[in-house]
Amino acid sequence: MNGVLTAYRRALRAQFSGRMLLLSAAPLLLSLFMWGLALYFGMQPLLDWLGGLFREYSAFETSGNVLTTLGMGMLKVMVVPLLAIALLLPLMIASSLLFMGVAAMPAIESHVGRKQFPKLEKKEGGSFAGSVAVNVGSTAVFALLWLLTLPLYAIPPLAWLVQACLWAWVTSRVMSYDALAAHASLEERKRLVRERRLPLLAIGLATGLAGALPGIAWMGGAILSIVLFPVLAMLSLWLYVMIFLFAGLWFQYYCLQALEDLRAETPVQSVV
């Protein structure tokens, strides 16, 4: 785990540099623009649609009885807004991760490689199309699993832990690909992902524990007032982007160091 901690310290130093903060601007602005429009034009229609479904299937009474049984009867009037938020959260996280992977990770890889690993040969084992495919596929699975675990919101500590595990899986899968795309060959990337699976998941879990907090905070804000939705949503987007930026740096430093170590252990044989 020494490599994980070393990469953490390097990422922490780089996180708040001017260049990294500038890199976070593109995915942040893209996320804010897209979700600002979506919430402005779509939030009330979504609430109306969900409310109509609840009235059509008499779900208000059922959900009220369930919440009363759980000792949370005061949330009966907030069940539709809470459900709307829970449906939107995985989409917001997925979009932030996708924008970070497409708009920032290539620049992060180039910066870290040039500054910290200037002699590391680039073997181009990944591609932009491959990155988009991994991002979209992984975040789609993440969003589906998130929706399936929505009932766990009734037990916040368990919901936090499960969401952190989902983050661990999706970030380790997506960011390890992006971190190694330019420098590692296809075989090297597959070998590193296989041999370093536990450290990669550990980095993902550590960032996931922090990444699950904005969602819990947003759900809590819904209890206070529906007016807080847009404000908390925009704040959550900023937090997601910053967390993904740090995670990207952490994965980048760790993966390139692991690649350098792998090549040192397997010297190229000269042809006689």
How does this model look, in words?
The chain is an all-alpha fold. The chain has 10 helices and no strands. The longest helix has 39 residues, at 18-56. The mean pLDDT is 80.
Q: How far is the N terminus from the C terminus?
A: 39 Å
Q: In what range is the share of β-strand residues?
A: under 5%
* Rg measurement, Å: 21 Å
Categorize the overall geometry.
elongated
Count of DSSP E strands? 0
Q: How does the helix and strand content classify structurally? A: mainly alpha
Pick out the low-confidence regions: none
Report the sheet with the most strands, covering strand number, pairing sense and barrel closure. none
Helix content: over 70%
Q: Give the topology string: H per helix, E per strand.
A: HHHHHHHHHH
Overall average residue pLDDT: 80
Spell out the blueprint of helices and strands.
Blueprint: H1 2-15, H2 18-56, H3 59-69, H4 79-103, H5 105-116, H6 128-148, H7 156-180, H8 186-195, H9 197-224, H10 229-265
Helix pairs in contact: 1-10, 2-4, 2-10, 4-6, 4-9, 4-10, 5-7, 5-10, 6-7, 7-9, 7-10, 9-10
